[in-house]
Design a protein that fits this description.
It comes from Paenibacillus woosongensis. Strand 1 and strand 2 form a beta hairpin. The chain has a two-stranded antiparallel ribbon. It is mainly alpha-helical. Helix content is 59%, strand content 6%.
Length: 128
């Protein structure tokens, strides 16, 4: 199964490539490309698909193994952990709250936007 994100991937300089690889795999778990206990692409397949060094892929996958998102079946490859989707959602919600919303409110304060102004802007974006 090919990664949906991988088809159009462009790595940026803001974050190490191995972290971006991990993020792509997480996105594929969240969007259903990979399901619980399903095998992900091999290191060689990811390396070829992204045109990057296999060691970089191994490092990205290693991050997800350490977080309990992926697990290894000896001799078979890497698989999605049963609670991977929930773990990813929890991590990203926490990051969203601590980083993005904090930055948003800081900027809103500088612009003297009220909570109602922010809510209306969010509602408008959701409609678009």
């Amino acid at each position: 199964m090919l990664s949906g994100e991988a088809m159009n991937v462009t790595f940026d300089d803001k974050q190490p490539i191995f972290q971006q690889v991990a993020h792509i795999i997480e996105d594929d778990i969240l969007n259903g490309t990979y399901r619980e206990d399903e095998q992900i692409l091999s290191v060689a397949q990811f390396s070829q698909l992204f045109q990057i060094n296999p060691a970089t892929v191994v490092k990205g996958i290693g991050l997800l193994v350490n977080e309990g998102i992926l697990y290894k079946k000896r001799g078979l490859g890497m698989y999605v952990s049963p609670d991977a989707k929930q773990k990813i959602q929890n991590q990203r919600r926490d990051r969203f709250y601590k980083e993005l919303l904090s930055d948003l409110l800081c900027e809103a304060d500088k612009l003297e936007l009220t909570t109602e102004d922010i809510i209306n802007m969010i509602k408008q974006l959701r409609k678009e």
